[in-house]
Amino acid sequence: NAGVTQTPKFQVLKTGQSMTLQCAQDMNHEYMSWYRQDPGMGLRLIHYSVGAGITDQGEVPNGYNVSRSTTEDFPLRLLSAAPSQTSVYFCASSYSGTGLFFGQGTRLTVV
Amino acid sequence: AQSVSQHNHHVILSEAASLELGCNYSYGGTVNLFWYVQYPGQHLQLLLKYFSGDPLVKGIKGFEAEFIKSKFSFNLRKPSVQWSDTAEYFCAVNAIGGFQKLVFGTGTRLLVSP
Questions:
Q1: Which residue in chain A has the smallest CA separation from B107?
Q2: B41: closest chain A residue by CA
Q3: pLDDT confidence of B1, banded at 50, 70, 90?
């Protein structure tokens, strides 16, 4: 029973590089979302999806893209990494009537 | 827009002490309320949630929270903390129907000394 799986767990990027953070869930949840966690700021919503083919922006979407081609997968793409994107990224899934189920997180450092 | 305030950023308690962490939210409509816990180096886990009904909600590990609508508050309580409760606690809220769009507070770091 894997739940929400994120890869990689750790990543170091150079400024300007692009990369994709992977997220997969096996609970058939319709809702998926990406948050970033920064010290003293709690978690902030980046992008979310209410189902395959449907995505929308959250509170801090700039510099990130998402797509949802299947119910299971919700990758987060950093287009051109900046030091301000150094953070811990959490993917989460949910179903109507439940709270969020979080993945283990990806710690990203942009140098 | 919704917002969540957690008044205590750091709390230090001795084992067996009682705990109350404050959480206030601002939103004019009907909301769902949550408390999450993040143990050191781990992801967030759901402690308890309030959707409707009895405003006193019981969660895992002996935690409970009370929703007071008139005060826009959802404080977390535990009668007797343990060293293993050392963690960061986050209050969160979402508008009805926005299950995937939680707004989180900034968190409270709890340190329980043995």
A1: A42
A2: A104
A3: confident
